[in-house]
Amino acid sequence: MHRFAFLVHPFDLKRDVARKYPFVKFLPSALVEAMLWRMSPKLLGKIDGIKSATGSQTQGWLIGVPTTAKMMLENEAKTINLLTEACKIAKDLGAEIVGLGAFTAIVGDSGLELQKRSPIPITTGNSYTTWTAIEATKLAAELMGIDWQNAVAAVVGATGSIGKACAYLLSKGAEVGNKVNISPVSEVVIVGRDEDRLNSLRRELLSNSSASIQVATNIAEGLSRADIVISVTSAIDAVIEPEHLKSGCVVCDVARPRDVSERVRKERDDVLVIDGGIVEVPGQPRWEFSIGLPDNLTLACVAETMLLALEGRLEPFTVGRDIRLEQILEIANIASKHGFKLSGLRSFEHQISQEQILQIREKAKQAVLKVRGWGLGTGD
Questions:
Q1: How far does Cα 68 stand from its chain's mean position?
Q2: End-to-end alpha-carbon separation of the chain, Å?
């Protein structure tokens, strides 16, 4: 049996740290941050009960890195040292590969710097995250009655590793084992802050695409016509607000911390927001420390780490800013082989039913009619 470890970190300075140290709820944020910088990575708990459809098994450990996303961006050198220490802890526990969660997968050139220092291979999990984001978005679009092949899709954070890969799949399409067929959409709007990088990506996409490719540096402009939105920025705070979204659209929020504002959930009952990259794990998984999901579910980045352990692929599978299409399709096929699959749809960390989706779809229909002036006592 090959074993793995996975690195996590707190998103919210008070809420997440308090899960491990309840007393911090009563301390000033600056003091909590200073306390975290003086701490070392900690073992949070074991993960076992993972059993592949092939009969093979794996187990692993969650290791907590005591830095928030904000802290990582402010002191990347210190963060790399902490991540290296965490990888050494993983090796001492018996792990043969380490997965990087959330912002630990972003610092150090998307894992490349850490791989030079780590005693065992690492993976960001971004290949499988990309595939499950597209797969979940396609399912959500079908349930919302969106015509995929004629849809306008926007990718927010398009010049990042996952964003670029999502833009490529949306514009080119792909197929995995005759089971999941992703057709190209009609138009892809790539959204980001750096216009030069966006234009470079546009040229790259156009050379392999049948879809129209547009560029936007303004989120409101980029999302105004979008039927489908995939958001995967490295922003610390939410970037998508209620006023940015078209009625009836699907938004797949892959980023952690979230890109979609809580205001969207509260104010826009006519759009469907789904969490990206949530998969069902085969066997009877048991987690000594919860990451906020039922034991049988996990994030796709964690699942990729599990899959590489099950396959005995103890290698830096996904590191760096470029994800090859071949990698994405390979890990999707490996997931199918071992019985990992999309868990249905979740929205803001809660399962969402088809009945709820139908309600959103009806609200969207009403919103469109209202804009057109129908059903408002105008005589139309």
A1: 17
A2: 68
The segments of the chain whose pLDDT lies below 50 read: 376-380
- Cis peptide preceding 257, ω within 30 of 0: yes
> E strands within the chain?
3-8, 42-51, 57-64, 97-100, 122-123, 152-156, 174-176, 180-182, 187-191, 212-216, 228-231, 250-253, 272-275, 278-280, 283-287, 297-299, 341-342, 346-347, 350-351
Report the greatest alpha carbon distance in the chain: 75
Reported as a single tens digit per residue, the pLDDT across 230-275 is: 999 999 899 999 999 999 999 999 998 899 999 999 999 999 999 9
In the chain, the domains with their CATH numbers are 3-125+280-342 (no CATH), 128-277+345-371 (3.40.50.720)
Contacts of 8 (CB under 8 A, 6+ apart): 44, 62, 63, 64, 65, 101, 102, 104, 291
pLDDT digits (tens, 9 = 90+) for 292-304: 899 999 999 999 9
Structure tokens at 212: 């129209």
Residue 262, Cβ neighbours under 10 Å: how many?
10
